[in-house]
Design a protein that fits this description.
By secondary structure, this protein is mainly α. It has a domain of about 120 residues: Tetracycline Repressor, domain 2 (Orthogonal Bundle), CATH 1.10.357. The longest helix has 24 residues. The chain is built from nine helices and no strands. Helices cover about 70% and strands about 0% of the residues. This is TetR family transcriptional regulator. Keywords: DNA-binding, Transcription, Transcription regulation. GO terms for molecular function: DNA-binding transcription factor activity; transcription cis-regulatory region binding. Pfam families: TetR_N.
């Protein structure tokens, strides 16, 4: 089963918490305030339990952050796999499929949070770089198949990658991009 980027429900108070419950709460804090907001007291409060419950599953906050990083890397690896599955599609459909993955609202918050975390964690930065590399490679190959020379294919693939990153970071500030916006953008990039 593919890792899910966000879990919206917290366990009911009084139920026995597992490590996954703590990690789900940690993901929510990561999404809200970044890795700097991750504190045992905040997680305990969010889950409605004492701090002692935390230590049943984790030695310390550094151990939890390490497990959270593993979880986030799995989310990124799943995205790389989804992208690789697009490689058999015709070029325009491949690019549309990538755009659909990038514009998925469930990914925006996680992607933005992970990119912020990557500024201070090399292992997260590596998983972001792998995903970006996959996006660029698929886009570049599709542009070449559409008949663009190397320089144009490179420029168009780079534009698509940077637009996706910008879309993730600007989400909510400039209004929602519509399906028409996306269609026009992709048409501009793929038109000869």
């Amino acid at each position: 089963m593919e890792p899910q980027p966000v879990e919206d429900s917290a366990p009911v108070r009084g139920s026995r918490l597992g490590a996954d419950d703590w990690l789900d709460a940690a993901v929510e804090v990561l999404l809200e305030d970044g890795i700097g907001g991750l504190k045992i007291s905040r997680l305990s409060s969010r889950l409605g339990v004492t701090k002692g419950s935390f230590y049943w599953h984790f030695t310390d906050i550094a151990t939890m952050k390490s497990e959270l990083a593993d979880h986030c890397r799995k989310v990124q690896a799943a995205a790389v796999t989804r992208l690789a599955n697009l490689e058999e599609l015709p070029p325009v459909e491949r690019i549309e499929g990538m755009a659909g993955l990038i514009s998925d609202p469930r990914r925006w918050r996680m992607e933005a949070a992970m990119r912020r975390w990557a500024e201070t964690d090399g292992s997260i930065a590596d998983s972001i770089a792998e995903l970006d590399g996959q996006i660029f490679q698929i886009s570049h190959q599709a542009m070449r198949e559409l008949g663009f020379d190397e320089a144009e294919a490179h420029a168009r693939a780079t534009t698509l990658l940077y637009a996706g990153i910008g879309f993730v970071h600007a989400h909510g500030r400039l209004g929602e991009a519509t399906a028409d916006d996306l269609r026009i953008f992709l048409d501009i990039l793929t038109r000869k």
